[in-house]
Amino acid sequence: MKRVFILLLAFMFAGTWIGQKMIQDSGYTLFAYGQTTIEMSLWAFLVLIVALFFALHWGINLFNRSLKSGSRLRLWSGSRKSRIAHDKTLKGLIALSEGNWWKAQRLLSLSADNADLPLINYLAAAHAAQEQGDEKACDELLQKARASTPEAEIAVGINQAQTQLARGQLESSLATLLSLRKKAPKNTYVIKLLRKVYIQLNDWQAVQQLIPELRKNKALKPEKLLQTEQLCYQKLLELSIILPDSASSEEKRKALAETWHNMPGQLTQDDVLARHYTRLLVNIGAEAKAEPVIRDLIKRHWDNELVNLYGRIEGENPKKQLDTARGWLKDDPLNPDLLLTLGRLSQRNQHWGKAITYFEQSLEQSPRAETLSELARLLKHLGETDKMRAVMDRHLGVIGGGLPSLPLPQKGAKIAPL
Fold first, then answer.
1. pLDDT tens digits, residue range 75-96?
2. Closest by alpha carbon to 311, among 289, 355, 343?
């Protein structure tokens, strides 16, 4: 309050002083330009200058305010669009997680231009379009994603390769992945997708070449990598014996053996691959070469299926093969598969009586149609028809297992005429 009072007094004294000066001497001011002259008192000129100053100051302030208002309007408009895009993106992602593909594609694509991260919108919208089977829209959205964020070319390319793979466009997916691999050779996901494409293309040579990269970059868990190796080399072993019809069994055996020996050393000790190798040897008639492989497998890890197979094949020395199987008997004397194998090997060595004993012991432990058939065949060829019938009657349930309970005629009953 005191400050206002002091200012008023100052203005009053200043006004009084100026008024006296104006009365004493009004002054004179002349402006001339060409033929034009302007005359006025000094005090009028000073008042005009002050008035012009305030008018100019007010005009500048008004102009600045208008600029700020326009900027604020643009900021408000941009902020509003951003909020709307954020809300639509959120709703679109929720729709995507709920499987509402049409709604998700529409919301995400419409809000992409004003979204903070348009790449996410376009990629998610492309996924929704793909789920609807709209391949054209999916491809267009992927192109927009690439254009919106050029530095995310690898991410967009991976999405494109996955989309092509889902459509069954294996060659296109492979071309995309090979291009990505040149740009990002250490990207583990690209390598994993390449593995999947090669397997679906049955390109086992390419899978074989990719395995070291999978291992080096730790792209797969150890157990998954082992499964890939096993599958790959199983297929390569199978392909090695696909030769012209004119090829002999020996040529097939050599081709199979070459592929087997060219495998990494640790894989030749793999039980899964060794079993597959022996089965292929048996299939092409190279049983003599399969016998030592099966023998070694059984020594490393007992397996009833392999024991059964060991009795089906003929090795180079049938007697030695029988002695080897007898050696296993002390560890598992009641194993039905081993007893069946011993029966077959005894029969191969023409030890008929011993073969019958082993077959009967196997049937006692586990009645099976396979064992019964072996015993019945041997007894029939030995002329033991009565014993064969008795064995068949005793183990009839093995042949007719699973039959319903039905009334049966008495022994010797006659068939009534129709």
1. 444 466 667 767 887 888 888 7
2. 343
**Tens of pLDDT, residues 253-272:** 899 999 999 998 888 888 88
pTM (two decimals)? 0.69
Condensed to tens digits (0 to 9), the pLDDT of residues 11-51 reads: 677 666 666 665 666 666 666 776 777 766 666 666 677 77
Residue 295, pLDDT above cutoff 80: yes
